[in-house]
Amino acid sequence: MGAVGNSCCSSVFGISFEQGVLLPTKKDIVFVCDGSLRSRKTGFSCLASGDDGVGEREGGGGVRMSPVSKNRTEEYNSAMRRMMRNPYEYHHDLGMNYTLITDSLIVGSQPQKPEDIDHLKNEEGVAYILNLQQDKDVEYWGVDLQLIQRRCEELRIRHMRRPARDFDPDSLRRELPAAVSSLEWAISEGKGRAYVHCTAGLGRAPAVAIAYMYWFGNMNLDQAYDMLTSKRPCGPNKRAIRGSTYDLAKKDPWKEPFESLPEFAFCDIADWERNLIRDRVRALRGA
Closest Cα to residue 283, out of 260, 258, 251? Predict the structure, then answer.
């Protein structure tokens, strides 16, 4: 596919951007840049960050990163490649990006400013935001979380937090049940879409969405994983989801340790196990 205008390309999640337009390979893409909506179809979306001290605009709609921001991005992506062992990258200067997974569920990266909340409310019908970041994640990128939360309150968007440590599958495994509990409640309320995000929307957030689809959507783990990653290229930790499934389904003191189980263990569950997991996850509401 040819360039649109002057070329200003960078790679995000294995997909290329040219001159503020996200170039799709197979599916229609939503891309918002400089505040204007270029396409209005389901799929991947990106919001340019604007003049917030993170990126500086050049002529032609490109974004030139400040040295500090560039260093932080390189640092973050290096850690992600090393600890998650995947090829995907996060580019903070390109703004919030997200993917519509189901009609009620969106997975994406962190909102960076109050205007991102306006966009999610007005363009995507978001009524719930589930934030999986720790405080240090938000501080690292210089995002003012209080402003984000205040705008959510003004727009009557329910903002929820279920922090999990970035790049840590053990932390993700522990926090998944509570996070899925919040997500399941939000979707069951039916008042609007739920937006689940971490920092990049590549690890923790898609893992929560996959676990929700696995436990509450009558899919096995591979089906839920393939469905999400076919729409949003990412690398959530499947073992953490399996481990969390094991923790919820097996409470017997004599159970075999999860670490000794084969790789396919808890990639699927029996109906009685799924019902048990659902009951235990729902019991975490408000915890």
Answer: 251
In this predicted structure, the answer to whether residue 56 has a pLDDT above a threshold of 70 is no
CA 67/CA 156 separation, integer angstroms: 37
State the Cα–Cα distance between residues 14 and 87, nearest whole angstrom: 8
Q: What is the mean pLDDT of residues 8-16?
A: 34
The CATH class that applies to domain 10-282 reads alpha beta
Quote the CA–CA distance of 273 and 287 in Å, as a whole number: 22
Per-position b or e across 130-169, b if 16+ CB within 10 A of its CB: bbbbbeebbebbebebeebbebbeebebbbbebbbbbebb
Per the CB < 8 A criterion, the answer to whether 99 and 106 are in contact is yes
Write down the domain spans for the chain. Answer: 10-282
Name the active-site residue from 8, 33, 46, 198: 198
The position carrying tokens 């580019």 is 91
Cβ atoms of 127 and 87 within 8 Å: the answer is no
Residue 33 pLDDT greater than 70, yes or no: no
102 sits in which H/E element: strand 97-102
CA distances from 272 to 15, 212, 215, 269 (A): 41, 17, 12, 8
Whether the pTM exceeds 0.85: the reply is no
Residue 276 phi, psi dihedral angles, 5° rounding: -65, -45
Catalytic, 152? Answer no
Separation CA 49–CA 84 (nearest Å): 26
Distances (CA, A) of 36 to 19, 52, 55, 188: 13, 17, 18, 32
Give mean pLDDT, residues 80-86: 75
Concatenated DSSP letters of 32-44: EETTEE----SSE
